[in-house]
C-alpha cells in the first residue's frame, strides 16, 4: 500500500473520496432532521447511512456493493424508518411478573454481524433498563409514522400492535370468565350525534298541591 498525498486545500485532487464524504454528510443531516434526534447520535446515523448505501445499486454496473461482496442480492424487507418509535419487548428474566413488559425506544439501526436491532431507550418502567441507554433486542413492534422526539410518545398503542409480539395461546381464558371492573373498559361503539331520550311516558306530579 502506497500512501499518496494531495496538495492542501485542493478538494478536486481527491474528488472520489470528497464526493463520498459529502454524500454521507447529507444523509446524516437528513436522518437527524427527520427524526429530530440529538446531534451526538451522528455516529449512529452514519452507520445507518453506510448500511443503506451498501444496498443501493451503483450507476456504472447497476449492482450493489453488498451483491459484489457477498455474491447475492440483498433483502430489503427488514428495513425500518430510522428514528421512529419502537415498543421493545423485554425478556422475562429482565422484568418482573407484575408490571410493564415493554419499553419505549427509538430505532437506531442494525448490528452488521447479526439480525439484532439497536435502540435508544426514552421511557422505561423496568429497573434493569435505564433511560438514555442503548439496548440490543429483536422482538419489537415498530410505529414507523411516529417520531417521539418530534411529536412525543402516544398515550396508548393500538390493540393490533400490542398483539404483534406473539399469538395468544388457546388455553387463555376469555374476558367473560375473568372479573373485570366495567368502569375500566372504554366503550368503542359509535355514538349518535342526536342525544338519547327516554321512552317512558311523562307523568305530571302535583306533589300534594
Please tag this protein with its features.
209 residues; alpha+beta; 2 domains; five-stranded antiparallel beta sheet; 14% strand
List the helices and strands and how they pair.
Blueprint: H1 15-35, H2 42-53, H3 65-70, E1 85-89, E2 102-110, E3 117-123, E4 134-137, E5 140-143, H4 148-151, H5 159-162
Antiparallel strand pairs: 1-2, 1-5, 2-3, 3-4
Give the percentage of residues in beta strands.
5-15%
What's the shape? elongated
- What level of helicity do the residues show? 10-25%
Structural class call reads alpha+beta
Q: What is the subunit arrangement here?
A: single chain
> Can you tell me the residue ranges where pLDDT is under 50 for at least 5 consecutive residues?
156-192
Structure write-up:
This protein has helices at residues 15-35, 42-53, 65-70, 148-151, 159-162, and strands at residues 85-89, 102-110, 117-123, 134-137, 140-143. With 209 residues, it is α+β, with helices and mostly antiparallel strands. The protein has two domains: 11-76, no CATH class; 80-168, no CATH class. Residues 179-209 are annotated as: Disordered. InterPro entries: Integrase_cat-core (IPR001584), Retrotran_Ty1/copia-like (IPR039537), RNaseH-like_sf (IPR012337), RNaseH_sf (IPR036397), SH3_retrovirus (IPR057670). GO terms for molecular function: nucleic acid binding. Residues 1-73 form the Integrase catalytic domain.
Short description:
The protein is an alpha+beta fold and 209 residues long.
Amino acid at each position: 500500500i502506497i500512501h499518496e498525498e494531495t496538495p492542501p486545500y485542493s478538494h478536486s485532487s481527491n474528488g472520489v473520496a470528497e464526493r463520498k464524504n459529502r454524500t454521507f454528510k447529507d444523509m446524516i443531516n437528513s436522518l437527524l432532521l427527520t427524526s429530530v434526534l440529538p446531534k451526538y447520535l451522528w455516529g449512529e446515523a452514519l452507520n445507518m447511512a453506510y448500511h443503506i448505501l451498501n444496498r443501493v445499486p451503483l450507476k456504472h454496473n447497476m449492482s450493489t456493493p453488498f451483491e459484489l461482496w457477498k455474491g447475492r442480492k440483498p433483502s430489503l424487507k427488514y428495513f425500518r424508518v430510522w428514528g421512529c418509535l419502537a415498543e421493545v419487548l423485554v425478556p422475562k428474566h429482565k422484568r418482573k411478573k407484575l408490571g410493564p413488559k415493554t419499553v419505549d425506544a427509538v430505532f437506531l439501526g442494525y448490528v452488521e454481524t447479526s439480525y439484532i436491532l439497536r435502540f435508544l431507550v426514552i421511557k422505561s418502567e423496568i429497573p434493569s433498563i435505564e433511560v438514555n441507554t442503548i439496548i440490543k433486542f429483536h422482538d419489537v413492534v415498530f410505529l414507523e409514522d411516529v417520531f417521539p422526539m418530534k411529536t412525543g410518545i402516544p398515550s396508548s398503542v393500538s390493540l393490533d400492535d400490542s398483539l404483534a409480539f406473539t399469538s395468544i395461546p388457546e388455553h387463555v381464558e376469555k374476558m367473560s370468565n375473568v372479573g373485570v371492573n366495567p368502569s375500566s373498559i372504554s366503550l368503542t361503539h359509535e355514538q349518535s350525534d342526536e342525544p338519547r331520550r327516554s321512552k317512558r311516558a311523562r307523568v305530571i306530579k302535583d306533589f300534594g298541591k
